[in-house]
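The following block was generated as part of the benchmark described in Methods. Ligand: uridine-diphosphate-N-acetylglucosamine.
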Amino acid sequence: MEKLEIKGGRKISGTIPISGSKNATLPILAATILTDKKIIIKNIPIVRDVQTMALLLSTIGSNVKLSQKNKKIEIINNNKLKTFAPYNLLKTMRAGILVLGPLLAKYGVAKVSLPGGCSIGSRPIDLHLNALKKMGARIKVKNGYIIASAKKGLRGCLIKFPKISVGATENILIAACFSKGITKLRNCATEPEIKDLIQFLKKIGCRIIQSGKRSINVIGVKKLKSATHKVIFDRIEAGTYIIAAALTNGRAKITDIDPKIISTEINLLNKMKVKIIKKKNHIIVFGSKKIKSINVTTKPYPGFPTDLQAQLMVLMTMANGISTIKENIFENRFMHVSELRRMGAHIQIFGNKAKIYGKSKLYGAEIMATDLRASVCLVLAGLVAKEKTILNRIYHLDRGYEKIEKNCQIVVQKLED
Ligand code: UD1
C-alpha cells in the first residue's frame, strides 16, 4: 500500500489554482441519466470519486468519454440504461446513491446498492427513501440493495425534509424534474453545489423555481435538451489551501474561485488574524505567527462547513489559547484527533465538542488516515510538524484532492510497504 512521506517546516506559497468541485460534479453526472441528449461537463476535478461515478454511468450503459487532459466529460445515453447500480461501485463512494432518484424517475425501477464512503458517522439514507416513497415509489431494502419501483412514474407532491441534507435535496430534486406535476421541496440544503446542479438542470430544460431561502418548486418535464456546463470551483479545496498557507506562515494566491462563496470561511480566518486580500476571482493569503484562538460550530451552508473542520483544527493547534469546535453535522467526525494527539496536539473531546489547546509543537509520526478530510488534515499537520511524518492509507486523499503533492510543494514521496 502507498504511503506519503511529508517533510515538515515548509511554507505553502505561490499560486494555487483551485479545481472544479467534486461535490458539484457528482450530482451533475448522476443527473445526466435523465437525458438522452449530448452533455458536456467541463472543469471536472480528476479525482477518484469522479472517475468512479463516470465508471458507474458507463457500467449502466451511458456512453462516457472522460478527458483527463481537458478536464471534461462528454456523455450521451444512446440506449436504455440498465437500472442496476452494483455494490462494487458504490462501496467507496457514498454519492453513488444519487443515481437512485434519476433512474427511478426515468425508468420506474432501480436496484441500487446501499452506499459506502467516509466512515464519519452512520450516514443513513432515510430522507432520500422517505421522499421517494411520498412521490409514489415502493421501496424495500434487501441483501444490501435498495429495490425501488414506481410503475406509473413518480408524482410531484410536497416534501418537507425533516433535516437539512445535501444528498437528499439533490437526489429528490433530480427525480422531481422527471416526475408528473409539481414537486414542492422545503427545508432544502442551499450549498453552492446545489445551486450549480440547479443551473445545470435548467440548462437541460428542467423547470425549477427557487421560491424562498430553503424552498424549491419543480415542474416535471418529459423531454430534455443537450447542454454544456462548467462546474463551480471546489470551495473545500480552496479552504484547505487557505488554511495550509495560514498555518505554514506562507503567502499564497488562491485562484479560480469566487471569494463571495467562501465568505464565512474568510471572515472566520480573519478573526483568527489570518490576513486575506479578496479580489474578484482570487484571494491572497498571508500566514501569521500570531494566530488567534476561536470557537466554531459546523453548520449547513452558509455556516462553516463540516468538510473543513479537520483542517481548521490543525490551525487551532497553532493558535494562541484555547479554541473549540462543535461538530453539528456528523456524529463521528473527530477520528483525526487521535492521530493529531500522536503528533503532539493537546485536544480533548466531549461528545460532539472538541477543545483544542494552543499553541502546540507538533512532531512527525507515523499516522493513519481514516477518511477524506481527516487525511488532508494530517497532511497539513505534517507540514508544520518537526521532522518527517509518514501518512498511511492515502487512498482516501485521491478521492478528493487532485494535486495535493504539487500544491503543497513538499517532499511527498510515495513509498511501498
Ligand atoms: C454531502 C457532501 C459531504 C458533506 C456533507 C455535509 C457530497 C458528495 N458530499 O454529503 O462532503 O460533508 O454533504 O455538508 O456532496 N442524514 C440523515 N438521513 C439521510 C441523509 C442525511 O439523517 O437520509 C443526515 C446525515 O447523517 C448527516 C446530515 O443529515 O448528519 C447531513 O448529511 P448530508 O447533507 O446528507 O450529507 P451528504 O449529502 O451525504
